[in-house]
Amino acid sequence: MRPSSAREPWSFAMCGGASSWKTGVSYLTWGVLQEKIMTQKYYEVFPSDGQRFSDSQFLVFVNRVLAFTLSGLYLLFTQQPRHLAPVYKYSYCSFSNIMSSWCQYEALKFVAFPTQVLAKASKVIPVMLMGRLVSRKSYDWHEYLLALAISLGMGLFLLSRSSGGSSSSPTSSSLSGLIILASYLVLDSFTSNWQSELFRTYRMSSAQ
């Protein structure tokens, strides 16, 4: 029994590393495609000025249809634990997830993609606030200071970029873009905390 127990930490480490690598590749691919779709111009056969893709609702719809199809197939062919969570509790995180995705795509019409990526790095404070509100989590004072320092650093960096860049750029930061970006951070923070609370309370699987 000892050799098998000694191999368990290595097995967990390898599984965790593989999962992190797959997640990183998926998010990197998603980010590249998201920027390409929403910020690049598309041209017809004949020469023209080109147009940008502006239908964020369609991207969210396709995203959800594919997610529903893949998760449905996975649930169909795998054995899952008994479903205990009330169905209505899924509606909260479903709505916030859909709206956060819409805000994420819509914000690219007003802010540059690097600005959006940097803003995501300052999502620590919304996540902590939603953690206290949804899951009643408690944090130490130094964790709040660290989150505040990260957010202030990102804010100063974004302000320096916007002041040094050209305001005539179609993707330059604007008040509308910052409001949509802030809405994305709040909604996405609520989604992750609400899902964590469902996992903790009802012991459901990730596919459920």
Distinctive features:
about 210 residues, mainly alpha, 2 strands, membrane
Structure in a nutshell:
With 208 residues, the protein is mostly helical. The chain has helices at 2-39, 56-77, 88-107, 113-121, 124-134, 141-164, 175-202; strands at residues 41-42, 51-52.
Radius of gyration (Å): 21 Å
Mean pLDDT: 76
Largest sheet: 2 strands, antiparallel
Order of helices and strands: HEEHHHHHH
- The unreliable regions are 166-172
Distance between the termini: 34 Å
What's the helix count? 7
The total count of strands amounts to 2
Q: What spatial form do the alpha-carbon principal axes imply?
A: globular
Strand % is: under 5%
Instruction: Identify the strand order in the major beta sheet.
Output: 1-2
Helix content: over 70%
GO cellular component, one term: Golgi membrane
Membrane topology: Multi-pass membrane protein
Pfam families: UAA
Protein name: Adenosine 3'-phospho 5'-phosphosulfate transporter 1
Strand and helix layout:
Layout: H1 2-39, E1 41-42, E2 51-52, H2 56-77, H3 88-107, H4 113-121, H5 124-134, H6 141-164, H7 175-202
Describe it:
This protein has 208 residues and is an all-alpha fold. Among the domains are: 29-39 and 55-78; 112-160 and 172-207. It is 73% helix and 2% strand. The chain has helices at 2-39, 56-77, 88-107, 113-121, 124-134, 141-164, 175-202, and strands at residues 41-42, 51-52. A two-stranded antiparallel sheet has the order 1-2. It is globular and about 55 Å long. Pfam families: UAA. It is a multi-pass membrane protein.
